[in-house]
Automatic annotation (TrEMBL):
Listed name of the protein: Cell division protein FtsZ C-terminal domain-containing protein
Gene Ontology MF annotations: GTP binding
Domain Cell division protein FtsZ C-terminal positions: 1-71
One Pfam entry name: FtsZ_C
Keyword annotations from UniProtKB, A to Z: GTP-binding, Nucleotide-binding
Keyword Nucleotide-binding set for record: yes
Keyword Nucleotidyltransferase: no
Length: 95
């Protein structure tokens, strides 16, 4: 549920986690519980986990899950930060 091959986050370092689950009126409490339980089992027991559920009739039978986690650092991000040797601030979008 929270695997991302592009970021490869280390979920053992999660401190806070916010989960949004969206679905239509057929989204059952048991499906929501399964999503939250799966994510809860992947993060440390002491991590704060909050979630919300939204009814979105446009999704039909699909379920949309968004996970925002504070704490894990992708190895790709860490490598990019470590490679910056200049002490000047990073320029984003040319500003």
């Amino acid at each position: 549920a929270i695997n991302n091959p592009l970021l490869q986050p280390d979920t053992s370092q999660v401190k806070r986690c916010l989960v949004s689950v969206s679905g239509d009126h057929t989204l059952s409490l048991s499906k929501i519980d399964k999503v939250i339980s799966t994510i809860s089992n992947e993060i440390p027991e002491e991590a704060q986990l909050k979630f919300g559920v939204q009814n979105n009739p446009n999704l039909g039978s699909k379920v949309k899950i968004m996970v925002l986690a504070n704490g894990p650092v992708s190895p790709f991000v860490r490598a990019a930060v470590d490679s910056v040797t200049d002490s000047s601030p990073l320029s984003i979008f040319g500003f």
